C-alpha cells in the first residue's frame, strides 16, 4: 500500500510487474480485439477515466498507472496494483451488456483500515474482501441494468458475482474463487439500510486529490 506520492514514484516499476501477471482472457481469445478500452466514472469522487489498457498484444503500463489511481481508496488516499484479470472481466462485462454508458464504480480498492471500518458498520462488507487485494469492484446501476450485469458476470464464470438489490442496486464482481450470491436475504427495508450505511461511509472520504495527467488514452502507454 502506498500514498499518492510514493505511488507515482513507483508506478512505472509496478506497472511492469503488472503486465506479466496473467494472459488476457478475452471472451473470444482467437478473435481478441487489437485494443481494449475502459470508460469509467466514480460515483463517489465524480472522476472519469477512459483508457486503453490493452494494445499491441500486451497490457499498457501507463494505463494501469491511471487505473490504479482512479480505483484508489478515497478514504485513505492510498492505492494498490489493480488486477489485470479484473480489468479483463470488466471489459468482457461491458461487451456482453452492450452498455452505452461508462462503467460507474462505487468501490474498488480498499485499504485494510477502510475495509475494517466498513465491515464494522455493514454486514454486506466482508472482513476478508477481495477489495483489499485490488481484485474486486462494485458496479452501480448507472452503468446499466444490474440484473444484466449480474447475469453477464455469472456467465463469464471467472470469479465472484454478487447482486445487492437495494433501493439503488449494485453488483459486486471479483476475480477470486467462482461464486455467486444475492445479498442479503432479508427484507427490502433492511437491505436499503445496509446499502445506505455503506454508501454513506464511502462518501465520507476526503475531497479527492488530482489524478495523474492524461486521463484519456488514444495510443499505447
Q: In percent, how helical is the residue content?
A: 25-40%
- pLDDT below 50 for ≥5 consecutive residues: which ranges? 1-30, 213-221
Question: Which oligomeric state applies?
Answer: single chain
Share in β-strands: 15-25%
Strands of the largest sheet, in order across it? 4-3-2-6-7-9-8-10
Describe the sheet with the most strands: 8 strands, mixed
Number of domains: 1
Radius of gyration: 16 Å
Give the N-to-C terminal Cα separation.
23 Å
Quickly describe the structure.
Residues 200-214 have a biased composition (Low complexity). By secondary structure, this protein is an alpha+beta fold. The protein has one domain (2-203).
Explain this structure to me?
- This protein is an alpha+beta fold.
- The protein has one domain (2-203).
- The chain is 34% helix and 21% strand.
- It is built from 6 helices and 10 strands; from the N terminus they run βαβββαβαβαβαβββα.
- It has helices at 4-19, 61-70, 84-97, 112-119, 146-156, 188-203; strands at 2-3, 35-42, 48-55, 58-59, 78-79, 103-107, 136-140, 160-164, 170-174, 179-182.
- The protein has an 8-stranded mixed β-sheet. The protein has a two-stranded antiparallel ribbon with strand order 1-5.
- Helix 1 packs across helix 2 (61-70) and helix 3 (84-97) crosses helix 5 (146-156).
- The longest helix has 16 residues, at 4-19.
- The protein is globular and about 45 Å long.
- Mean pLDDT is 79; it is low at 1-30 and 213-221.
